[in-house]
Amino acid sequence: MNLKAWGLSLSPNMAANFQVNLDNCLAEICKINYTVPNEGSVFNIVAVPQIASEVAVENPAILASYSAPTMPAVGRDLFGIHAPADWFSDVKSGTEGPTDPATIPTVPVGYVRMWDTETTWRDLEPTKGTFVWRKLSKQIETAQVLNAKVMMVLGGTPAWAGNGSAADNPKNIADWSAYVRAVACKYGPAISSYEIWNEANLQTFYTGTPAQMADLTAAAFKEIRACNPNALVVAANTTSRATGSFGTFFPAYLEELKTRNWPADAYSVHSYPTASGGADDRIRGVAQFRTMLALSGAPFTTVFDSETNYGLAGLGEGKIDITGDKAMALLSRSYIDSVRYGFGSTFWYVWTKSPDPKFGIQLTPANTDEQQAWRQTYDWLIGAQLQRCATPKDGLVVCQFSKGAENFSLVWYGDASDASPAFTPSKGYFGPLGSNCQTLRGADCAGILNGTAPLGFMPVRISGAPSAAAVAIPASISMTPEGVAVGLNQTTTLTVTVLDGAGKPVFDQEVRATATGSARFEGGNTVKNGRTNAQGQLTLSVTRVGANAAQVGTITVVPDTGAASLKATSTLSAPTGIVLKTAVVFAVSQGTVTGTAPAFAGSSIELVVSSPAGVFMQRRFTVSVDADGNFKKNVLPVRPGFTVYAIDNPSTPTKSNTLIFR
C-alpha cells in the first residue's frame, strides 16, 4: 500500500485493520448493507499535505521563518469550473447564435468540465451511427473563449445501446468503442481529458458492475490513445459522501482496473461534504478517496476533484444556503486545500445565469462576493509554489508559498462550518511571516498583525518584509483550582494561566512546575516543564501518592521569564470524609474491609455490616484509624452480597460510601 505517496498518515496496525475490514466488506458485508462514514477518523486516516515532513500536527516553528518550495508553480488548470453555455439554436436552418454572455464565467478559469451540457453519449449519438456534434462543438467553443482546457465526460448510454436508461451498461462494448473513437478522432487536441463516467458508484448514473466499468475504461483508453495520445484518460469518478456504494463499488472497480494493468492516467472524486459540512469535512472525504487508491496499490498519479460545492441536501439534511463571508471562505479554501493536498484541478459546480436550487453556494453574474473570493484566491495562487503547511496551534493553519522572489503565507483559523470563536493573536505573533495583511475582499488587515483584530475562517495573505515579533512578558501566573481534595493514587488536572501586562495570554511561555509532599506528575516525577498554548494555558496532570492518606501535596509553578516573584501554588489534600476501598470475603463467613479516613487519624470509627434484604441482620464493628489515616478490619460473619458502610459517630454520623462484599 503506497500510503505515503497518496498523501496519507496511517499507522501500520491501523492500515492492516483497514485492509481486513475492506476485504471483509468486499467478500460479504458490503453486498448487504455497508456504509463508509464521511469521517476518515473511523480508521485513523489523516489526509496530510503533500509535503511529507509536514504532517498536520501542531508545529509552532512554521511561524518563525520560510523555507524552500516543494511543489511546482500553480497553473491555471487548478481553477476548473462547470459552465453550461446557452445560445440560440435553430436546427432546421443550422443557425447557431452567439453564446449568452451571462452563461460565460466572468472569473478566470483554466479548465471546463462538460457535464449537464447535453454532451453525453446519449446526446451525441441518439441513433446508432448518427452523430449530433453541434452542442459539443459549441461548448468547446465557449471553453476556448475562456482560454480553458476541456474535460469531457463520456458516459450516458443511448436508449438503443442499452435497455433504455442512460445508466445502463452498454450491451455491446463495440458500440462504446466506436463512439469513443469518433469523439477522440474528431476533436483531437481540443479535448484535453476524458472522464470515463460520472459518479459510477451511484446507480442513478450507472447500474453495471465494477468489472464492466473497468472494461469500458480499458476500451476507451485504447481508442483515446490511438486518436489523441496526449489526452488524459480519467477513471470513472466516485462520490466521497457517506454512501454504501462508495465502500463497495469504488474499491472493487479499482481492483478490476488493477487486473487490466491500470488503464487510466488519472483518478477523480466528487468531494461534496454533507450539507452542514465545511472545508475540513471536504478534506475528510478526500482522505477516504486517497485511502482507497492507496490500499488498491494504484500508481501515484494526477487526481482531480471534478465536482465540488457545499450545502447540498442529502444524508438526512436539507439544503443549506451559504452566502457572504462563509461562502467566500469555503470557495477560497477549496482551491487552497487542493494545492495543499496535491490536486491537479478542482472543478467548481457550477456557474449559471441564475441561481441553481440544488447548491448552497451560488456562482452567477450577480454573486459579487463569490466572484471576489475566486479572483482574489486566483491572484494569490497562480504562479506560486507551495513550501509547506502546518498547524502552529489547534485550529490555526499556515500555508507558506513562494512567488518569484517573494514569500507569503495564507492563514486562517477554524472552518466556516464551525461555531469556533476567532483567534486574536498577540502583536507580532505573525511578525516573521511579513508586515502586510490582505483579506479575501482585498482589504488591509493590519489589525491581525498588530494584535487588535481577530483571525477567523476567512483566509488572509501575509507578505512583505518580516516585522519584529513582540516579546510578551509574563505579568501574572495563576493555577486553578488552588486547592482540591484527591484520594490516594487518584489523579486530577490543574490549569496554569500566564498573562501579560495587558491581561492577554502569553503564548509558548515555558513554565516550570515542582511537586512536593504527596503530589507527583506522570511517572512519579517531581519536576515537569511545559509551554503554554495560544490561550496562555498549560494543563498539568497530578496524582496524590504514598501510604499516608492524610498527607498534603503541593504543586508550585513559575514562568521562566518575568519577575522573580511570579509563582502560583495549588494543594492536593485528602477528602474530609470516610472512603471504603475494599470489602472482600476471604474465608467461610469471614471478610476484610479497608479504607481511608484522614480526618479521623489516630481515633476510631464504626463499620456497619448488613445482610441482604429479606434476611435482616446488622452488626457494628469498631475499627482504629492509624496515624496515616488508613484502616483495615476483619469482620464476621459475612457472605457475598452483604453490605458495609462506615460512620464516625452514631448520633451525628459522617457516612461513607457503601460497598457490597464480593
β-strand percent reads 25-35%
Derived from helix and strand composition plus strand pairing, the structural class reads: alpha/beta
Tell me about the largest β-sheet.
9 strands, parallel
Helix content: 10-25%
Q: First CA to last CA: what distance? A: 51 Å
Radius of gyration: 33 Å
The name of the CATH architecture of the largest domain is: Alpha-Beta Barrel
Main sheet strand line-up: 9-8-7-6-3-13-12-11-10
- CATH homologous superfamily classification of the largest domain: Glycosidases
Structural shape: elongated
Give the helix tally. 10
Low-confidence stretches: 10-57
The CATH class of the largest domain is Alpha Beta
Count of structural domains: 3
Q: Output the CATH topology of the largest domain.
A: TIM Barrel
Give the rounded overall mean pLDDT: 87
User: Total strand count, please?
Assistant: 34
